[in-house]
UniProtKB/TrEMBL annotation:
CDD domains: HTH_LacI, PBP1_LacI_sugar_binding-like. PANTHER family: LACI-RELATED TRANSCRIPTIONAL REPRESSOR, LACTOSE OPERON REPRESSOR. Residues 1-12 have a biased composition (Basic and acidic residues). Transmembrane segments: none annotated. Residues 5-49 form the HTH lacI-type domain. Keywords: DNA-binding, Transcription, Transcription regulation. One of its GO terms (molecular function) is DNA binding. This is LacI family DNA-binding transcriptional regulator. Residues 1-23 are annotated as: Disordered.
Amino acid sequence: MTERPRLKDVAERAGVSQTTASHAFSGRRPVSAATKAAVLKAAFDLGFVMEGGTGQRTVGLLLRPPEAIPGFASGSDTFTSVAGAVLVALLGAGFSVSSFLTLDDIGAQVGRLDAFVLLHPRRGDEVLRALIQRGIPTVTLDPDPGDAEFPWWIGTDYAANARTLLDHLLTAGARRPALIVGSTQNTYMESIAGVYVQEMRSRGLPVLVREVEPVRAQQGGAAAAESLLRIPTPPDAFLTSTDLFAVGAIDAVQARGLRVPDDVLVANMMDSVIAELAVVPITAMKANMQVWASQLTRLLQRRLSSGAPLTSHLLLEFELVQRASTRRRSPQG
């Protein structure tokens, strides 16, 4: 069994004295911000935990995926709302919460983490791997699609939700629905793309897909839709993975002198305020963020109390919210 790292190991790695390393944790004597960051990062890298404290458990929360970061003003509010709901639920359960954008942020800002909540892990997620290696109890919203062994997660049956939305578009008259999906490799994006391709092929319909970097937001959605509308036989509907891709698709449709929904239908996988207040309100699948947050918090409490992993995973449900973007006067044949 490997010996647990000690304070002197942290000091050596950070290039400071053991006394300085101790002050970086205790705050009894001032140390520079750069020195404190170096000590905390060394502690995180080594898996060192400073004993003691108030007894309040500190939980790390990583803000993800990329489209959540710009914030409500310029980015999708769906994932931002998820992060906010989880933060409130954790605080309500008595946890102290520190939020981060990257793995480096974690190491530079904290010396002690009792647990971690990871939202929407990517395939082969490097943060999840690092947390597991350091022995930090972690739970995730959605599984890592490349790790079938990690059991501490709750999620959603995105495949069923994608089928519901595709069925809605086809019932509303679509015969050539296209998909605009984010390029992030996580369970959400991969499930949507997988179901779309499978459903189109099984129905003998053309597969029309554009993959967009999530940070391109509305402009990326517009560019993807524009490229599809230029093909010889263009799509008559767009299914998108984020609200801003959907707004961008509407922009592209209208720029070509077409109308939503009369000429082209538009629907988005996850509902949001942006979808609801769009120039043409967008049909979407609505999730209860508070349920997600409370169930994730309960899972974390179960893990910290040494409870057994779930033998079956909670798959939260969405409901279809139909709006003007798919309400044609009559289905087109």
